[in-house]
Description:
Layout: E1 2-7, E2 10-13, E3 18-26, E4 31-39, E5 46-52, E6 57-59, E7 67-72, E8 77-82, E9 91-99, E10 103-105, E11 109-114
Parallel strand pairs: 2-11
Antiparallel strand pairs: 1-3, 3-8, 4-5, 4-9, 5-6, 7-8, 9-10, 9-11
Amino acid sequence: QVQLVESGGGLVQAGGSLRLSCAASGSIFSINAMGWYRQAPGAQRELVAIIHSDGRPNYADSVKGRFTISRDNAKNTVYLQMNSLKSEDTAVYYCRLFLLYEQYWGQGTQVTVSS
């Protein structure tokens, strides 16, 4: 069994910063990638950023230059540093873990940006 524990969400003013963390534990042998998705009210869940096993990141166009994804392989933890936050970044942020044959979701953490 695999568990993902997210933390770091909250309320912040526009222009501010937040750092999300997601720690994976359990039967983890080989991680292909870890990523962050988000879902705003009434919208579909969308990819925010993903970091591959070789350390290569990919970002949604809407967050390029503002968000940075990083990973601590020793701790099986992925981070999302979010700077210059905008009201449109308000959403529930979900961590996703990609193993060789399985994928797992975190429980989600709320990020609210006030304008």
